[in-house]
């Protein structure tokens, strides 16, 4: 009797505390900390009255591969990150829920909404965005007695400053860290007016404008002003810059969080990407990640509520002031944070302004995804490591690219 | 042919053979050795790489031990406890013609770098501890190279300082170590012996610090007259210290070597000045356990991965022994229609590469083996159970056992049959006791294969993180930490994962060799 009473009480207690659990998939790494902070401080308290609890389940390894795997096996979360870079492919799988009529896209920056739109349907809401800027080490410029990079720099004046720093500081130091990666080099290619795909949908790497950018970028490495991150045993130029031996790096706002942890004493400033000498324009990429809803989700209504919270003003304010990324809501873009004078806030401001200055394109390559970049990166690598001349490398890249795009 | 010449040729040949063997083992073991050494470094990506390991220097380890004791947490797992006074010394070179100014020393407020460890709301030493009594000691003249390598004259001054963590209560009484509850409460509470008790904040300092004591944190309390008073939270993570110098000055010596030197030697950062030996030398190993926590329960997930790997490997070993020995016996000794066809089918599964069959296996597990998993309350088999179910026995193991049984004399079985034993009795009482070497071989190879398996587990177990096996978990470490260049922790995890296999190899080398020979030669 006593036992059955206890059992009944336990069952009742269970029923009373029944809650809808919404699972979120995103990157592992630093995002684990950020998203959990968001959930604990903002999202879950706001949704507690609806009996909804969001749980973050980061996917291990290569996120896009893991997400493909999870979607096909039915173990994916109810909400997930979709990177602009792979969005076209994931939209084509038909596993994402179209959000038209379920979420208002009005408060968000139009170009970011467009990034996740396919045939008039929106499939994800950008959680934030990022672009590229020049981060420079003030101490190295001071020590070398060279003026800091600034918004008036052109390619030639910028390169000149870097050369002077290198000359003054000697062999252990470098002007800039340049990876053999279109994700950074592309900003220079765009500044010349060149486009990834021309009006016919073809990519022309033998265009004189592309060559000009290519020669400038690889030339810095050839005259030892720049160094590849791998030559300093680093995986990316942020790590290179954090080591304190490189005067500048081309990265987005994500570098400020990294430096706060890994180089607590590094004094850095941020300048926009330099202008091309002929066009007088800058080039840049827009990087963004959106939240998408799983079409097979059993708790779609709850997932949409969580999505609302994840992209709310309050959340984006938090993301911004933590110095993590730039908010995707238009209303936040006049936020007072951008006028602060901390090095993180100044970095965010330059990155934010870079997204609407000159020739700016989203970081995506139609249905080709990363395959489009492979030949271009190989060409950069070949020339930067002195294995091929520009003409040879570009010719090979063009033919490889043609076969990629014919597939 | 004189004997002396013959002997010298023999010696020369032996030298050659040994040299080749040693070179070969260095090539094979090199990555593992370097990885092990690198796992002790603060900056595993240092360029150019060096083999100097201040972490393994006995003098530094002694200092780390003493600092750990001074912090109050003991010499092995250093902590910073209320009432601690940690002495620290730095020596600073000032070039001639420059004023000898004391350094600016502060306790830094640093978030953990990356990964799951960054999730927890830590207690910051900077909120509670301050630098006091910075005093200049003796000054001696010296010469040091500047940045270009030219020797310059100057003086070296020795400074002493203390990092002090004052008590937050004046009460005297019994010290109690407790944890704050898992959810943040307005009034401070703590769990003492399973009971939630109210904690008094009886000084203005303690009241100001209330917001700096997060949920689920270890605190030190003073118990007096049945009341508990907050003495202060115990800082488990680290006590980071920053020593900033004027331009031109250099740090020449300090109680512990600096973790990171920036700004041309002006900024010297010490990651933890109360480390204890574990926190200093084995810091990356400690972090592998501490920073990989399950977000739901807060327990170390690294141990779960080790446990999962062990569980799967051991269950697989047991089932393999059972099924492979029975099937092997049937193929070797029994006569039944279709035996040869069946054996060819078994061999056929050995010949097809795993990458071909994994898709169909994947689909089977997705449906939970035609819904069998539902009997155990699992919607599908994408969890450690799926790994066990899909690896109960392998055709290679059956083949190994069959070959071994065939090498045993048949007369024994025939004798057992004459005495009236059934097929199973003959297998159980007569044949099996003789196959211990084969079973040992089978156990070892199965354990090793299962422990090191990566591809299949990475496909099958995805979420939640507590389901992963160790190799997949390590890949997940790479995702979480490699972006930050934090390879020390990844390598520490890899070294830990290699230890069981190394031990297995050391103790059972004989069987490893036998497994490749014994199954091929019929006696």
From TrEMBL, chain A:
<keyword id="KW-0813">Transport</keyword>
<keyword id="KW-0732">Signal</keyword>
<comment type="similarity">
    <text>Belongs to the bacterial solute-binding protein 1 family.</text>
</comment>
<protein>
    <submittedName>
        <fullName>ABC transporter substrate-binding protein</fullName>
    </submittedName>
</protein>
<dbReference type="InterPro" id="IPR006059">
    <property type="entry name" value="SBP"/>
</dbReference>
<feature type="signal peptide">
    <location>
        <begin position="1"/>
        <end position="18"/>
    </location>
</feature>
<dbReference type="Pfam" id="PF01547">
    <property type="entry name" value="SBP_bac_1"/>
</dbReference>
From TrEMBL, chain B:
<keyword id="KW-0812">Transmembrane</keyword>
<feature type="transmembrane region" description="Helical">
    <location>
        <begin position="341"/>
        <end position="364"/>
    </location>
</feature>
<comment type="similarity">
    <text>Belongs to the binding-protein-dependent transport system permease family.</text>
</comment>
<feature type="transmembrane region" description="Helical">
    <location>
        <begin position="384"/>
        <end position="401"/>
    </location>
</feature>
<dbReference type="Pfam" id="PF00528">
    <property type="entry name" value="BPD_transp_1"/>
</dbReference>
<protein>
    <recommendedName>
        <fullName>ABC transmembrane type-1 domain-containing protein</fullName>
    </recommendedName>
</protein>
<keyword id="KW-1003">Cell membrane</keyword>
<dbReference type="InterPro" id="IPR000515">
    <property type="entry name" value="MetI-like"/>
</dbReference>
<feature type="transmembrane region" description="Helical">
    <location>
        <begin position="306"/>
        <end position="329"/>
    </location>
</feature>
<dbReference type="InterPro" id="IPR035906">
    <property type="entry name" value="MetI-like_sf"/>
</dbReference>
<keyword id="KW-0813">Transport</keyword>
<keyword id="KW-1133">Transmembrane helix</keyword>
<feature type="transmembrane region" description="Helical">
    <location>
        <begin position="487"/>
        <end position="508"/>
    </location>
</feature>
<feature type="transmembrane region" description="Helical">
    <location>
        <begin position="15"/>
        <end position="34"/>
    </location>
</feature>
<keyword id="KW-0472">Membrane</keyword>
<feature type="domain" description="ABC transmembrane type-1">
    <location>
        <begin position="306"/>
        <end position="508"/>
    </location>
</feature>
């Amino acid at each position: 009797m006593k036992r059955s009473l206890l059992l009944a009480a336990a069952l009742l207690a269970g029923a009373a505390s029944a809650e809808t659990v919404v699972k979120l998939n995103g990157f592992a790494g630093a995002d684990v900390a950020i998203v959990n902070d968001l959930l604990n401080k903002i999202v879950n308290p706001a949704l507690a009255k609806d009996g909804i609890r969001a749980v973050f389940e980061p996917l291990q390894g290569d996120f896009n591969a893991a997400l493909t795997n999870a979607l096909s096996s039915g173990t994916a979360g109810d909400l997930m990150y979709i990177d602009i870079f792979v969005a076209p492919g994931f939209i084509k799988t038909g596993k994402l829920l179209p959000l038209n009529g379920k979420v208002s896209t009005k408060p968000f920056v139009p170009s970011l909404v467009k990034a996740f739109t396919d045939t008039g349907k929106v499939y994800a809401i950008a959680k934030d965005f990022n672009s590229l800027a020049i981060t420079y080490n003030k101490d190295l410029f001071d020590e070398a007695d060279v003026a800091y990079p600034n918004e008036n720099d052109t390619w030639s004046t910028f390169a000149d400053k870097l050369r002077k720093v290198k000359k003054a500081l000697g062999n252990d130091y470098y002007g800039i860290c340049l990876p053999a990666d279109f994700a950074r080099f592309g900003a220079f290619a765009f500044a010349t007016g060149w486009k990834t795909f021309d009006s016919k949908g073809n990519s022309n790497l033998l265009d004189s404008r592309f060559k000009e950018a290519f020669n400038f970028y690889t030339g810095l490495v050839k005259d030892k002003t720049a160094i590849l991150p791998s030559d300093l045993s680093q995986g990316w130029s942020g790590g290179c810059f954090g080591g304190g031996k490189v005067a500048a790096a081309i990265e987005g706002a994500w570098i400020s969080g990294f430096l706060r942890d890994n180089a607590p004493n590094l004094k850095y400033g941020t300048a926009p990407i330099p202008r091309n000498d002929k066009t007088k324009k800058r080039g840049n990429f827009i990087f963004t990640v959106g939240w998408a809803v799983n079409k097979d989700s059993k708790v779609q209504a709850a997932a949409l509520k969580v999505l609302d919270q994840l992209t709310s003003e309050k959340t984006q304010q938090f993301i911004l002031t933590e110095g993590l990324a730039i908010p995707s809501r238009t209303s936040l873009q006049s936020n007072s944070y951008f006028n602060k004078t901390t090095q993180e806030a100044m970095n965010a401001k330059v990155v934010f302004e870079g997204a609407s200055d000159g020739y700016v394109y989203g970081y995506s390559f139609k249905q080709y995804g990363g395959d489009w970049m492979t030949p271009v990166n190989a060409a950069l690598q070949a020339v930067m490591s002195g294995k091929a001349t520009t003409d040879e490398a570009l010719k090979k890249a063009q033919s490889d690219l043609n076969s990629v795009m014919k597939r | 042919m004189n004997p002396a010449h013959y002997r010298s040729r023999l010696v020369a040949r032996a030298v050659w053979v040994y040299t080749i063997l040693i070179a070969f083992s260095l090539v094979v073991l090199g990555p593992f050795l370097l990885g092990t050494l690198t796992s002790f470094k603060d900056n595993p990506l240092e360029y150019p790489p060096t083999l100097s390991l201040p972490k393994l220097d006995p003098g530094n380890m002694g200092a780390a031990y003493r600092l750990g004791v001074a912090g109050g947490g003991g010499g092995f797992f250093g902590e910073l406890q209320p009432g601690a006074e940690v002495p620290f010394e730095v020596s600073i070179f000032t070039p001639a013609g420059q004023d000898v100014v004391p350094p600016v020393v502060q306790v830094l407020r640093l978030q953990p770098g990356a990964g799951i460890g960054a999730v927890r709301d830590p207690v910051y030493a900077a909120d509670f501890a301050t630098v006091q009594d910075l005093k200049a000691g003796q000054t001696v003249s010296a010469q040091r190279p500047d940045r270009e390598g030219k020797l310059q004259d100057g003086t070296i001054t020795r400074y002493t300082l203390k990092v002090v963590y004052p008590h937050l209560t004046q009460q005297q009484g019994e010290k109690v170590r407790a944890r704050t509850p898992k959810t943040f409460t307005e009034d401070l509470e703590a769990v003492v012996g399973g009971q939630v008790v109210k904690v008094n904040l009886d000084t203005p300092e303690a009241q100001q610090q209330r917001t700096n004591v997060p949920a689920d944190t270890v605190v030190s309390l003073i118990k007096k007259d049945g009341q508990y008073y907050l003495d202060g939270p115990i800082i488990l993570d680290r006590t980071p210290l920053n020593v900033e110098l004027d331009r031109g000055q250099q740090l020449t010596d300090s109680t512990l070597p600096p973790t990171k030197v920036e700004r041309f030697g002006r900024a010297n950062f010490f990651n933890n000045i109360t480390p204890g030996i574990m926190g200093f030398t084995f810091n990356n190993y400690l972090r592998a356990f501490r920073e990989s926590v399950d977000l739901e329960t807060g327990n170390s997930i690294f141990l779960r991965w080790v446990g999962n790997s062990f569980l799967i490997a051991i269950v697989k070993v047991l089932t393999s022994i059972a099924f492979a020995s029975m099937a092997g016996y049937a193929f070797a000794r029994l006569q039944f229609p279709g035996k040869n066809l069946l054996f060819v089918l078994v061999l056929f599964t050995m010949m097809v590469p795993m990458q071909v069959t994994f898709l169909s296996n994947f689909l089977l597990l997705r449906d939970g083996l035609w819904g069998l998993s539902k009997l155990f309350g699992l919607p599908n088999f994408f969890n450690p159970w799926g790994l066990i179910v899909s690896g109960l026995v392998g055709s290679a193991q059956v083949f190994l056992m069959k070959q071994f049984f065939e090498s045993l004399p048949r007369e024994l079985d025939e004798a057992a049959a004459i005495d009236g034993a059934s097929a199973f009795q003959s297998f159980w009482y007569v044949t099996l006791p003789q196959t211990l070497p084969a079973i040992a071989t089978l156990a070892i190879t199965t354990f090793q294969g299962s422990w090191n398996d990566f591809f299949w587990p990475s496909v099958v177990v995805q979420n939640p993180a507590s389901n992963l096996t160790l190799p997949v978990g390590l890949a997940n470490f790479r995702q979480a930490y490699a972006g930050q260049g934090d390879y020390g922790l990844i390598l520490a995890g890899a070294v830990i994962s290699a230890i069981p296999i190394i031990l297995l190899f050391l103790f059972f080398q004989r069987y490893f060799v036998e497994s490749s020979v014994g199954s091929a030669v019929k006696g």
